[in-house]
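Title: Comparing notes on inverse folding

I've been comparing how different people in this forum approach sequence design from structure. To keep things fair, I'm posting one structure and asking everyone to reply with a full sequence. Here's the target:
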């Protein structure tokens, strides 16, 4: 594996060594926290489910009225170029589109595009085997369907999460749950129906895949999920690009199901890993 010193990034039109990738202080991401991004997992030279991430990146940009300086095809080409050049085993690739260099520190002019790639660590086996504890917090992101760079609430809650011996915080609005700062949420009802909140969520790529694979074995749906539903659930888990399917065994003071990761969650994790491996082998053909 390469050290960070040898990595390359795409920075405002060109591929440069990572330590030479910079933004000027006039950028609206710095001045006003204005920008969008997306994050793709890469196995070897294969960015997994790339088209889904590109769709979401373009949708986030559109929702924030930011014009991408590259066409979708040019962006894809640049990603493959960078992935080849960096040659990492398992990595995360981040595309960031900012408000750009603004004359008055407020009005967007020409958005800036940066792409970075770093080695990625997946959740430890012990976290998967034991499951995690989470807490809840009443909050909805400003534009839940867009992946903006504003994670202020999630970051402010880190100390509360730690103080309560938890790993993550689940957002809800008056008892109707939505998502985590960086993950989607699922419950498994007593009849094995797999449910994920329908509203006020980022359309997670892992969420989409898990809904698909869950639908092969069980009933799977997007629906309203309340804190009360969680208390009645047989299992709960979160999904994200980096965490895949991670079982949840405690929500605030409530133990979920048996207090151990459930069979449905673990089966979905195995199915997701198989789907990822399938992507890598298809890309090699
Ligand atoms: C707010 C939010 N919800 C959910 C997710 C999970 O999405 P994905 O599965 O595409 O990683 C993310 C990813 O970072 C996120 O930022």
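Reply #1:
Here's my take.
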């Amino acid at each position: 594996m390469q050290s960070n010193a040898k990595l390359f990034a795409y920075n405002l039109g060109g591929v440069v060594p990572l330590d030479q990738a910079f933004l000027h202080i006039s950028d609206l991401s710095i001045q006003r926290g204005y920008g969008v991004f997306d994050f793709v997992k890469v196995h070897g030279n294969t960015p997994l489910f790339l088209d889904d991430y590109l769709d979401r990146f373009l949708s986030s940009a559109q929702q924030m009225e930011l014009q991408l300086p590259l066409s979708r095809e040019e962006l894809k080409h640049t990603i493959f170029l960078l992935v080849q050049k960096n040659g990492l085993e398992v990595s995360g690739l981040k595309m960031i589109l900012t408000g750009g260099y603004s004359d008055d520190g407020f009005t967007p002019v020409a958005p800036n595009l940066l792409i970075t790639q770093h080695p990625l660590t997946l959740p430890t086996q012990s976290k998967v085997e034991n499951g995690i504890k989470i807490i809840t917090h009443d909050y909805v992101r400003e534009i839940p369907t867009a992946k903006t760079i504003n994670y202020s609430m999630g970051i402010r809650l880190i100390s509360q999460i730690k103080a309560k011996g938890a790993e993550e915080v689940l957002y809800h609005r008056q008892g109707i749950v939505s998502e985590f700062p960086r993950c989607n949420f699922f419950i498994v009802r007593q009849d094995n129906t797999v449910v994920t909140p329908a509203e006020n969520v980022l359309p997670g790529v892992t969420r989409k895949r898990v809904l698909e694979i869950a639908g092969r074995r069980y009933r799977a749906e997007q629906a309203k999920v309340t804190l009360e539903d969680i208390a009645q659930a047989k299992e709960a888990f979160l999904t994200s690009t980096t965490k895949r399917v991670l079982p949840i065994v405690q929500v605030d003071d409530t133990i979920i199901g048996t207090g151990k990761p459930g069979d449905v969650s673990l089966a979905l994790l195995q199915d997701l890993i198989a789907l990822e491996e399938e992507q890598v082998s298809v890309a090699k053909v």
